[in-house]
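Escalation from tier 1.

The customer reports that the assembly of two entities below gives different structure tokens on two consecutive runs. Tier 1 could not reproduce it. I'm attaching the input and our single run for tier 2 to review.
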Amino acid sequence: MAKDEFGFDDAVIKILTKKENTIVNAENDLLDSLTPIEKKIFDAVQRQVSKMNKDGANLIFDDKNVNLLNEIDKIIADQLKGFAPSVKDYLRNFETIKQFNFDAQKSVNDLSEKELEDLVNPIQKAMTQQTIDGLTGSGVNSQFIEPVKQGIFKNIVAGSTITDLESALRTWITTTQAGNSLLRRYVTQVSRDALNQFDGQVNSAIAQEYELDAFRYVGSLIDDSRAQCIRWSGKGVVLKDQLETEIAWAFNNGTGMIPGTNKETYATFRGGYNCRHSAIPFKMTPSMKKKFLNEQGKEQEGETKATDAQINQVEKQVNQNQKDVKQAEKKKELNPGNFLTTQNKDIQNDFNQVLNDSDDFIGLANGINMNVSLRTPSECTKPGTDKLIRANGLQSTPGFVYRIGTCSTKAAGCCYEDNSSLIIKIQKDQKILFKKYDIDTTKEFAKEFAKKNNLEFLEADDPRLRNKYPAGIYEFFEGKNSFTYYGTMNKADNKFKFFTMSSVSRIQDNNIAPTITHEIGHAFENAKDPKNLIKKGLMSKLNLKLSDAPTIYGESNIKEFWTESFSAYVYANDFLKKNFPKNYEFVEEYLKEMNIDLKTIKIAQ
Amino acid sequence: MTSEQRQKLSELTEIAVENNDIDSLIKIRKIIEQDEQEEFLKDDFGIEWFLSYLTPTLQDIIFAN
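Tier 1 run:
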């Protein structure tokens, strides 16, 4: 008869299949025989509890009931006698399984029945006795009779109704669609383990006795077969010297392995609890082993190639992504012909960074040929503008000077309403830093802020203010008898407001970044809401008045209301959200209405 | 997985983390998980190793997919 590559012929495979079926059928027959017995036990126990004393419908805890309870063991044991013939039939299967193993071993390892008898019979005897004890003796007592008795006792003590107790008895003693009885659960476990483990122990003993070096893993696979069973069935054979790593693999990657499974107990426990597979020990010839290992090597090689292909695919994706990121990171810059400055490269880079952090401002500016200039105060006059143009290597004409424009000495920057020119003024010691400012509206904060920055917080009745000005932060020029104010207390609500967001950064760090963002805000609104219709609509919808602006300058008109709110959103996001929540909403909604993606507006952290 | 493959995956993971390249990190995670299924014994190259590259936020994102 033709044999497979491991020396197993069809007849052996048929024997092993029959063996698997025998184990399954034996278990099913035994469990089927339980149904009438469960009913008899239930009826007998129910009769017993019906004799118990009750107070109305409730059981009482008295001597009579305790005595009736103590008779329950015997009542159940009497009924279980009817189970004995089924157990006897079940035990006959040990002999059948043994015989199948003998037949298989004869074919696979040429071991005679006679020489195996001595090895297997003691195992059969021990397993048979263990199974009898399990199915009829102490096991049934501890796993079924005792829990039922304890349950009845608890119901008596608790004064349950007889109906409640009967319902509980039905759950413990009978098997319904809702679940198995305690007895059936226990018998299922014992019967499954008994024949399977006997079979396994026989194979373990044969493997050790005859120093067999491989196990043929046989048995059918089902939908929920465990990972280790699928793996070993797929391999067909597990070599004895691979057992350690295979078992470790199963514990790490599989499920249901029995603790204590090792290379000695592998054939007994196999794929774990309730495993129906068999590990049949056999001797591999050197050529068979070589071929098997070669096949395994090829598989390994195939896996390596497949992994290489996957890694190559990921590598392409990673590289492409990196390229995209670098491209995106590459700073957009203003058209050189539209950007005028005499500042050094570092300041230009900082300036460019702030422009890049506000949506696609550069795209907007380049698209409409907006002239953007970063200039010293002297470069903001007409002659200064002329010089600035020439300093940038361009030819200065009156038209060009006019188009680039000038900026008032009082302003820190400006953006022409037709977006033809955006001017940012920078003085000698000023910087451009994209950073967050932690500010507040309390008087305490204002006083502390003034102190920290060497300014004075003057109360309204301070004689230097000649009662003309509100309380706030001032820089007083004694010799000139004049002052600059940076923020005031609002008389209506006693809240402090800075003059502009830029006041905060200029005082604290000599930083003009909020001015740049303020002017960018104007550029956006000029381009997308030139008639202020969206702004007006939103302010009305949110019930916002100019006096709700986060800064004093923001109260001037709706354009400054927007740009000051926008600057606060970028440089003092938490502050705006906490103190001016409606303005916060206004900024986000207005940006959305102008089709500006919120994600493109970088918030200073 | 060979040592060369591991080396390559380490490099790719570092680049992907740097670029916040979620899609690639998920693919790398799958290759490593598949390798863990194949390897007989888990060693120091596995999901734990991969996790060590990721911030808690990235871990949430990569393992939510």
